[in-house]
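LOG
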Amino acid sequence: MRPRIALALVLLTLAAACETVPVTGRSQIILVSEQDVVQASDKIHAEFMADARQKNLLVTPTTAENTRELEMVDRVGRRIVDAAGLTSHYKWEIALVRDQQVNAFVRPNGKIVVYTGIMPIAKSEPGLAAVLGHEVSHVVARHSAERMSQSLLAEGLVQGGSVVAGVYDPRYQAVAAGVLGLGVQYGALLPYSRAHESEADHLGIIYMAKAGYDPAEAIALWQRMEAAGGSRQPQWMSTHPLPGTRVTQLREWLPEAQRYYQNRSLPVPTR
């Protein structure tokens, strides 16, 4: 009876932690509070910004170079955040960092960071809108909280499996932990990570359309990404879909996004 009661409690906990992602309608399990995620992000971002200031990498309105890019990043970022309905949800801050990394990210506490290295590939305001639409969508879909929850579940699964193996034969405990760890990594965590990236592409193309940017630019952006990229590892080993996969998916979602581009007052399905 005890295992059954324990299983019932686990299932009830998971059911209570179930949420739904806007637009896609995908169910997700969130075991950590938004407050905990935001507090952790505040600490990480404060350290990041302190390091960037110390190295004099932040672009400011008084900086001699990249000021036009800073204005564009600020303008596009705020339009995307507004289209996603998050303007009043966090204390949004936008930073442009002088770095050749082709990267940008948005933390779950509302802090947007764009590296100057991505600007030549973004190429234009709509291209940047595709980048930031994707990144803000991670916040909308609470992907950070979901990844933390998945890690907790995966850790529990690996530890539980190794303990069970150790009961039968202690010699197999470490082997079981290693095999389960690899299985969880390549069979669950990496596929979920790629699914999150695709989901952010889906939401992002809609938010950029609602912000007044042609969603077809998202396809052009990833075509440029593919052209600029070097050798890549196989998709099943990666945290992100390959650019070609993203282009194919974006083409499928483009008609849906075009509806929001043509009628920006059209409401986006919410959680």
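LOG (cont.) second protein
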Amino acid sequence: MKKAILSISIWALFFCLARVSFAYETIPFRNGGNIEGLVEFVGNVIPKDKTFTISSDVKYCGKEHRTEKYLINAKGQIKNVIVYLKDIKAGKAAPQETVAVIDSKCTFVPHVMIGFKGNKFVLKNEDPVLHTGHIYSHIHGKTMFNIALPEKGSEITKTLTKTGLMELECDCHPWMEGFVYIFDHPYVTITDENGRFVINDVPPGVYTVEAWHESLGTKSISEVAVQSGKTVAIKLEFTGK
């Protein structure tokens, strides 16, 4: 009986330890490598963003709004894809900079941003109309906070205390949508209009590179080997959900 109890206790301890997650650690190192690449859509039909008519606050918002859900050019290259090293444990320090998103002409600018845990997040209204900062944890997740921005120049400031995706919405203008993806490490970037990205100063090692797109989901490449002073080139391809 005592052996059985001891066995159960050991297994319980094992599972408790297995659930412990180790925080990212800033370490000194020299002569890191780089990862550069391209993110493309390779399906038969490239998804297109849509333009629709606006019915409220037309004087300031305009009569039409074009979505930013895809941003794929004629060559299939995708803008606004967040590319990052998955589960990296140590490396250079994360930037100490504020994430600023602006309500401008009834649009969140920029539409997609990167944030870092422990830094400030600012949402500012530059329109002379009421907006709300309705922030969710992940897409259609739980409300983190919902604060009115009643006039031009009003703003809110919060501290980014958790990692993961935040979705931004405005209850007054339902077409408004934005995203802030929060990390505890600096090895993350966003693709440009040609689907290009670079992650610099990576400690030598073997990594999994993951890419997130708001409408197409996630893709990853494992076993990406980074060598000191060298650049490795990769390609990530989306085919749609």
